[in-house]
UniProtKB/TrEMBL annotation:
UniProt cross-references to PROSITE patterns, sorted A to Z: PTS_EIIB_TYPE_2
Known EC number: 2.7.1.-
InterPro entries hit by this protein: PTS_EIIB-like_sf, PTS_EIIB_2, PTS_EIIB_2/3
Name used for this protein in its record: PTS sugar transporter subunit IIB
Gene3D superfamilies, per database record: 3.40.50.2300
Keywords linked to the UniProt accession: Sugar transport, Transferase, Transport
Entry GO MF terms: transferase activity
Enzyme class: transferase
PTS EIIB type-2 domain sequence ranges: 2-96
Length: 96
């Protein structure tokens, strides 16, 4: 089971929207039983991300440079433009 973190600035608004879209997408792909999702604020999770506590991290906000390589930019899930690219990155992480 993969552990996914979806985060935004405060852990409430945009991460809630992205979490709902991600859960729907996981169901359409038949992957809902392969991932557990946590939702939080970026400031609360930096240490956890640095220590690899999550397999997949999706953010709708700017993240510090030290964790950038471990984070998938999820803004496209809010706009709808480029969402397929985000889903493809997530799927790749799930399959690894």
């Amino acid at each position: 089971m993969k552990k996914m973190l979806i985060m935004c600035g405060a852990g409430h608004a945009t991460s809630t929207v992205v979490r709902a879209k991600m859960e729907d997408w996981l169901k359409t792909q038949g992957l809902e039983n392969q991932v557990t999702i946590k939702q939080s604020a970026v400031g609360d999770e930096i240490d956890n991300i640095e220590n690899n506590r999550y397999d997949i991290v999706v953010s709708t906000t700017v993240v510090p440079n030290n964790i950038k390589p471990k984070v998938i930019n999820g803004v496209a899930l809010l706009t709808g433009i480029g969402a397929d690219k985000v889903y493809n990155e997530v799927k790749k992480e799930i399959e690894e």
